[in-house]
Specification:
alpha/beta; seven-stranded mixed β-sheet; 16 helices; elongated
């Protein structure tokens, strides 16, 4: 690990934090930063820097960062852009561990803003102090109880790292996550990349023990060759997923005014992602559906079993598997003999893969079918589809899957419990036990595809 990346440890797990521009004004950025840091960072010392206030949220104010007697691991700046260079200079003189500039009004705005940003970059590079931003949301690390941002809340702890050029997208993802079961190790909003860039964060996350999957939202990349080389190295250790915005000419113009990033053609980016071993996806929903599967389930060889109590859903899943070049091995003679035992299956069950156990299937039939498929040597993973009939034992089916997953830990299980009100309790059992569920077969097959070793 190079020295620059080592320095991020102090910045990403600070013992103390200074908020420059801390505010008493409710719903302001300076107030939101203080509120979030105080809620999450209970064991950290917080300094409120504001020369015009005596106290903010119970913290006594200090006039400048230079007046703080202790060393500072992380300084967060939320003041007007025009005074940021002077504040950054004070932080560097203080020898802080790292700086986050939340403030906007830099290269994404106009030429004058670009000049301000270049001035800031020159100061931190000379002082050798890492800088995140400007024009960003900040850092959120549930793994170390840190919310150094003005996001609406602290998401669940988990194994997914999310690195995004858009802070607003992060806010919405966090809000949604509070209703979901997957969680985050780290969330980074990196804005204009005046100093630290995407490559630095990829290298940091490669070595982060809490992170299993890296998810990217990109509008543009400043140094394509450097990114490909870095991503190629990191993707050998941890999967990288990407959602690329700015694929059209109109989108490219929007990206330039949003984060000052240059965009290129969709074809060039897709080719680069493929070369770097990155999985490219087409929506925010796909991004986190697939990341959940990669965080929770092992990878496997190409050979998947499908079990369903709805024939039509099995046909749909087969179509999606065929389009994704996912192999569906034939059921072996031994597997069929197990399923043909008296009173085990409905007389009309399919005897093939997908294994249709018929709509009136109770949990005992699901158990026998799932176990038989998992025992077959050339079936390396399983898709369990459940449609809802009046006799369907939703919760019992989920419990059976949970137990069989423990028995066969090396084979991934993806579920497609289709439904809503009457299905939710089963889905809750699955996802609390890190068995991902999707509400329709196409999403489930997409998740399975990501688990198949290339």
């Amino acid at each position: 690990m190079n020295q620059k990346i080592k320095k991020l440890d102090r910045m990403f797990n600070p013992k103390n934090i200074a908020v420059i521009g801390a505010s008493n004004q409710i719903n302001s950025v300076g107030w939101g930063l203080m509120e979030n840091i105080l809620k999450s960072a209970k064991k950290r010392k917080i300094f409120a820097i504001n020369p015009y206030k005596k106290e903010i949220l119970g913290i006594k104010c200090i006039s400048s960062i230079g007046s703080v007697l202790e060393s500072i691991d992380l300084a967060i700046i939320a003041v007007p852009a025009k005074i940021v260079p002077n504040i950054v200079k004070e932080c560097c003189e203080k020898k802080v561990g790292g700086i986050i500039i939340i403030s906007a009004g830099f290269a994404e705005k106009d030429r004058e803003g670009k000049e301000l940003q270049d001035k800031v970059a020159k100061i931190v590079k000379k002082a050798n102090v890492p800088l995140l931003g400007p024009n960003c949301l900040g850092i959120i690390r549930p793994s170390v109880d840190l919310n150094a941002s003005f996001a609406p809340g602290l998401p669940k702890k988990g194994e997914i790292a999310f690195v995004s050029q858009s802070g607003a997208l992060i806010d919405s993802v966090i809000d949604r996550n509070l209703l979901e079961y997957y969680g985050f190790s780290t969330i980074i909003s990196y804005g204009n990349e005046a100093d630290l860039d995407l490559n630095d964060f990829l290298k940091f996350l490669k070595n982060d023990k809490e992170t299993k999957v890296i998810v990217l939202y990109l509008e543009g990349i400043k140094d394509g060759r450097k990114f490909i080389n870095t991503a190629k190295e990191v993707s050998k250790v941890k999967p990288i997923l990407v959602l690329k915005a700015g694929k059209t000419k109109a989108g490219q113009r929007a990206a330039l005014t949003h984060t000052a990033s240059l965009s290129g053609s969709a074809e060039i980016y897709s080719a680069a992602f493929k070369q770097a071993g990155i999985i490219e996806l087409d929506s925010v929903e796909e991004l986190f559906n697939v990341s959940k599967a990669l965080a929770w389930q092992p990878k496997c060889k190409n050979g998947i079993g499908i079990i369903t109590n709805g024939g039509g859903c099995g046909v749909l899943a087969t179509d999606y598997c065929d389009k994704s070049k996912i192999n569906l091995p034939r059921l072996s003679r031994d597997t069929i003999q197990k399923l043909d035992k008296p009173n085990l299956m409905h007389p009309a069950y399919s005897k093939r893969n997908p294994l249709d156990i018929v709509g009136d299937a109770l949990s005992s039939r699901y158990k026998a079918g799932i176990e038989a498929l998992l025992e077959q040597k050339n079936i390396y993973g399983l898709l369990v589809i459940q449609t809802l009939q009046i006799m369907t034992e939703v919760e019992e089916n989920a419990k059976i899957i949970k137990e069989l997953k423990r028995k066969y830990p090396k084979k991934p299980i993806i579920c497609c419990f289709m439904g809503g009100k009457y299905t939710n309790q089963g889905i809750e059992i699955l996802e609390k036990n890190h068995i991902p569920n999707y509400l329709e077969p196409q999403r489930a097959v997409l998740a399975i595809r990501s688990l198949i070793k290339k």
